[in-house]
Prior knowledge:
Blueprint (H helix, E strand, L loop, with lengths): L51 H4 L6 E8 L9 E10 L5 E5 L6 E8 L5 E8 L6 E7 L6 E4 L10 E7 L4 E8 L7 E10 L22 E5 L2 E5 L2 H9 L1 H18 L24 H6 L9 E8 L2 H11 L3 E14 L2 E13 L2 H15 L5 E4 L2 E7 L2 H11 L5 E16 L4 H12 L5 H8 L3 E3 L2 E5 L9 E5 L4 E5 L3 E5 L5 E2 L2 E2 L1 E10 L3 E2 L21 H11 L5 H12 L6 E2 L10 H7 L1 E2 L1 H14 L4 E8 L3 E10 L3 E6 L4 E2 L4 E7 L6 E3 L4 E5 L1
Parallel strand pairs: 28-29
Antiparallel strand pairs: 1-2, 1-10, 2-3, 3-4, 4-5, 5-6, 6-7, 7-8, 8-9, 9-10, 11-12, 13-14, 14-15, 15-17, 16-17, 18-19, 18-26, 18-35, 18-36, 20-23, 21-26, 22-23, 24-25, 27-32, 30-31, 30-34, 31-32, 32-33
Amino acid sequence: MPALPHPLRLTRLTFGLLTLLSGLPLAQAQQAPDAPPATTDARPPDVGLVPEALRALQHFVGRWRGVGQPRRGSPAGAWQEEAEWSWRFEPRPALEFRSPQGKYFRRGRLTAGEPAGHYQLEAHTTAAQQPVVYRGRLEEPGAALVLTCDNPPGDGPHVVSLRLIANGNRLVVLYQRQAAGQQRTRLAEVGYTREGSRFGQGSSQTECVVTGGLGTIAVTYQGLTYHVCCTGCRDYFNEHPEEVLREYRERQAQRRESQPGVAAAIQPPDGGPADVASNQRSYRAVVVEGTQAPPAGWTRKSSRQVADGQTAAIGRKLGGRISKLWNTEFTVTGQRWAESVALRVNVLDCSSADDAAKIEAALRKVHGNPAFVLRDGNTLVELVCNDIRTALRAPYFLGLKPSVANYRVTFRAAPLASCDYMAWNRMFNLFLQLERKQPDASAAIQELSGKFTFGRELRFRRHGLGSQLSTFELQPRPQSESVAGGDVVTYAWTDLPLSETIPAVRVVAEVRSETFAVTATDRRAGPELLAATQFWPSDDAGVKQLASDIVGQRTTVSDKTDALLDWLMPGQNVRYGGQITGSRYGTRQVLRQKFGHCWDFSDCFVTLARAAGVPCRQVGGWLVGQSGHVWAEVLVEGQGWLQVDPSAGLQCTAEYVPYIVSEDGAWPLVYTSDVEIRTLP
């Protein structure tokens, strides 16, 4: 995997803000009067002020692929074109589109007109140098937007009608002529399909933080990820992030006020996978306002706003200004690894983005682990807990991290028949150097390729994290496709193009991940999921004895899995680390030397699990915002595949993107390009 630190490594825990200022016990602070409002930067012009008329057309935003037809249902004279609609906010808010191969319009700008409910489109046609103005109105939401021009140039349309159908995934554009005093006659119709849409399948709705539309593009600010609907919103967010996020939070607060009520309780962690997706909370409502009940198994012990003087002193110690600070204590019960855990959640409203950045850096230095400090605009959330697994799960129950995510993963890879796995990560990094045009990368790839035997097959996990099927687009197209066990798909080629004399395939996969989900399957726990292999010596006498000692008298797959995760928890018996990033030392060596990285932890888990009678296999892919990653999954008969990360001691969350699978330990590919992860709606 790339040379990045593992984000879930166990480090020496601290006591958060209590360690920073002696004599300032936050948990015992008295309620302070309301602090004055934080100062903010001047408001940029028009930010967030989307006219309601344009907001009604928000679903135009996106990338579209279309087929045009002069006559509906007839291929005669048909053509293909693409279009992209996006927001622009200066000099005034507008929806703009571009269609470089458009038959009638190449680009245009749609604005709200007068009177209310009317629109104006300045369209650049294929027949005129200057934009042509069309005007019209939307009779009612869901109806067609009809725009007309009395004197279009050349044979251009007098009337353009745009209508969204299929829940906004289809856009139908009708072009018509209308001579004076005559009825309209059809010129052509273009039927567009939204890029990335898949009919008949559900999707999570991710909000654009700028306009409130459907967010399809991930953006980051101060270490946190948000979503916008188009490149225009992306650019605007990058220019005015603080103002955009402030208005976004205001919209969220207004919704909470208009829809009061307490969310349904999340099931305790030991009662099976929690239904986090349908019960996601607002951390402010739980921690600060107390208007929502905490998750099941959480008891709110105390909650106080820290006095102004103490808040100011803590801010000075951390290097930034804090306008308000809340301290809430919870007791968390019902977790399989601890009867009761104390968790403190500190919420720090900082005075500016610069203050938030400085304080965030200071807190992360105190903790030594990014999992304990999260950011929401100018607000920081610090988790103070002596149990890392409780701290890692808490953000999902508080709504600080997404519970469901859809991803598009793009990369090039060489199919593997065999290799020296200690050279695997080195080969990947050499291809990254080649992309960056670093000298000698090509020669180093050729020299290292002697440690690899390349094949003509790729194997993928058919499902993401959950039960939704993943999709794979491969170039060149495979000559054959087969499915084994209902959940592993194999693609094969007779010949492949070469990249640096190495066969390569371009892969575009769409994967859905659901926090703590189980993948339903009819698969039975056959011998292939328990067998010893070259990579997993589960029949080794020493390994079998160790596995027996770890699981003890436990008899169920779930209980044995918990025991193995507890034993492998980094820092307990095996240290996470080592000089060789992306190492794969082999199970026996890791158990002797007592250190390794994620692949080593996964190998140890699968080996010990199979030795203990737990049917399992290896899973890999990407950990969003971090790096490539390897973990595992166990088969719980009657339930399905349960994905777990042995290097974190937990079930996997929506940040895990699984698409690689191995049932014998052999890895199906090595990356020959960087890996692009894009969040989809």
